[in-house]
Design brief:
The complex is a heterodimer of chains A (112) and B (115). Chain A is mostly beta strands. Chain A has no helices and 11 strands. Chains A and B meet through strand 4, strand 5 and strand 9 of A and strand 5 and strand 10 of B.
Chain lengths: 112, 115
Amino acid sequence: QKEVEQDPGPLSVPEGAIVSLNCTYSNSAFQYFMWYRQYSRKGPELLMYTYSSGNKEDGRFTAQVDKSSKYISLFIRDSQPSDSATYLCAMSGDTGRRALTFGSGTRLQVQP
Amino acid sequence: DVKVTQSSRYLVKRTGEKVFLECVQDMDHENMFWYRQDPGLGLRLIYFSYDVKMKEKGDIPEGYSVSREKKERFSLILESASTNQTSMYLCASSFAAGGPGGELFFGEGSRLTVL
């Protein structure tokens, strides 16, 4: 079983819809949670960074962490065709000399 | 802004060739990483480095080696390229390794095709 599970999609929504992207994880030591956006043939770019449980909002994007359920979400309001990309969740523990653990990514298509 | 630059966006090599992928970061980050990304398999860590001349194996190091002679530069080497190494290679850097400041900043990727 993978440490981080993410539905690969593709997820297709109409422009203006609210999008919910999710990851579940098994390692209770994870404390730092990130969402990356990756356009086709490009490297991932950091979209959101959160620590522990709670919500964080940045424009149309909201990241939510529920550590009790080991579940994180990214919400995109008023989705735009330019949001069409693959979204990767990533997480790490508080200490330890290790790289991030990534989900496999969800491909999102926003139809105009 | 952090900039991570990968020297080649697209490469085509023949089986058995030695391949060098170069990566440079401009933010004085201690930590640098090489991943490969394949459809359905996600990002897989090949090697990482926490300091100059220091390297540690990731999850799939077989067939690869790395070099970090200067803090800003991290090279991935395929000693004898094989067709199963056809992939997108991503370099990343971070201020810390995990924990606060551990978010990764990625380059644009190098798409390698081995014939």
